[in-house]
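Dissemination and training. As part of the outreach component of the grant, students in the summer workshop were shown how a complex can be specified as a set of sequence lines and then modelled as a single object. The example used during the hands-on session is reproduced here so that future cohorts can follow it. Participants entered these lines:
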Amino acid sequence: MRQTRAVEFGTGLFVLMGMAALFFLTTQATGGDGFSSNDVFEVQARFENVGSLKPRAPVAMAGVTIGRVTDIVFDPVELNAVVSFVIDSQYDQIPDDSSAAILTSGLLGSQYIGMEAGGSEIYLEEGSEIFLPQSAIILENLIGKFLMKSSSDSK
Amino acid sequence: MVSESENLIEITDLCFSRGARQVFNGLNINIKRGLITAIMGPSGTGKTTLLRLITRQLIPDSGTIIVDGVDISTLNRADLYKLRRRFGMLFQNGALLTDISVFENVAFPLREHTNLSNRLIRHVVLTKLHAVGLRGAADMMPSQLSGGMARRVALARAIVMDPEFLIYDEPFVGLDPISMGVIVRLVRKMNDALDISSILVSHDVDEIATVADCSYLISDGKVAASGSPEELQKASSALVQQFMHGMADGPVAFHFEAPDYTEQLLGRDAD
Amino acid sequence: MLRDIYNAMMEFVRAFGAFQLFFLRLLANSPSIFFKRFSLVVKQVYNTGTLSLVIIMVCGFFVGAVLGLQGYANLARFNAEDSVGTFAAFALVKELGPVITALLFAGRAGTALASEIGLMKATNQLSAMEMMGVDPLRRILVPRFLGGVIAMPFLAAIFSAIGLFGAHLVGVGLLGIDVGAFWQLMQQSLEIGDIQEGIVKSFVFGVIASSLAVWEGYSAIPTAEGVGRATTRSVVITAIVVLIFDFMITAVAL
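and obtained this result:
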């Protein structure tokens, strides 16, 4: 009987360690941009071009993460991209004329949505839409423009 | 007990070959109820193969094997397993499960096939272990047992489900004289006390003579002789004489088939 | 010569088919053993999982540490040494964790399974069980198969987690990368999907490694030599099949 107990203990220990490792990997090693709230409201913004923005990308205001992108779909009528993202409901005083831009962290880093506060007295709430979107800066286009410009300058 | 025929197992015209080698070629054996039947033969005549055929671990090429009135080739898997539970089998080296104790080995069939309480299982197992004289070894592991003890434990395991027939595969091989005597006595005692039938495969002529009621000598895939040990001793056939008295040369030649000796020594066969 | 090749091919096809049938029987008997005889499975999780913990943890630590060193040396050329954590995490979670765990499993637990079952066959234990009306497939093989399948994902997760710890120790402790950068860059680029891919892989590898080890033991020629050869074969075949499946799963996941 003592042997059975040792086996049971060993098995239990092993499975607990395995689950701890899985828990560690799923919570500590992934997507931890400091945003984990469940109490959120969803807003939308339309962009001409979302670049390489992906769901789960952070939404930041003044450099602080306040939400995350939940969905990106193409609107076949207006021919642009509709980005849905959620914002922690404790930030319920964001002016509704705030602008949203797709920015890049570092020169080649991942993309995120950066918001600039507006001056309106009406605040963003569930279902609001942001009207001042700035599309992603596509590095290739930028380089292309730069080259065009420099070549036309040299003429 | 109405329809019971005298023969427990009837083997008729059994043929079986392994690869190109013909192991049995028209074998006929009847095993009678309540007796100890010995099956003898030189090494390599397929005695163990015969046991595997009787328990349908192997399937014959042709011929029938009837166990207790049922042709075993007609059984499906479930019925076969049901039939096997009525067998108790003792393997050459005991074949105890090495990862569990002696007690658990004997308890194994009970735990697998019954829902007996732990107390009852303990009671039955200790009784059976006591019958083979190894109640004191219940907590040992199979690796700690001597060859003779392992075989006795295996015997206790074979009888734990109260089988109707016991099959022994080479029970006397590799034992010292004392252990051998113990096993011989146990074989007799089990057969008579439990009122079962025993089949014994062996080539130990002396032990067979003391314990068996009836014996068959197999050679070249057929029964070469049969009868009580005394009858076999007196049989005139050269093969029977060679086997029973352990003579080196005879119908079973001392020399394995080879090219001519002088020719080979002189290297002429190399051309 | 041509005849030999032909025979070898026919034999391969036959063995492959025999394994498929065996594998289906394992699967068909798995649910009832899992629910009715769970204690048998627990014992095998212990044999394959708990007893492999030490080798998995030691190897995981050093693989992670090496990833830290190599990642640092190479990423430093692009001034991106802060990404060592990301590099190590991707390598461990998606590839090295499941694959090396499966290979170590084949070496540690797989050989133990194959030789144990082969020896049980060689010493007539399996026949004895059949004679007692107990199906060895259900009583011996299925619990061992299930134990391996359950243990493998946990082993791979432990390997990856310990590996990250090793990379952290080397990167942050030895080479002076900022702790925050190490973990935050990793967290930003690693997604749940990557972890899922790792888990799926290790589960598939668990099925492959356990079923092959059990099969090699069960189909071994019941002699000392045959069991030895079966043990070797189980490692070689498992390694090959695991790497082939690794390629296929990665190709599908991308």
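The radius of gyration of chain B is 21 Å. Students were then asked to discuss how this feature might be tested experimentally.
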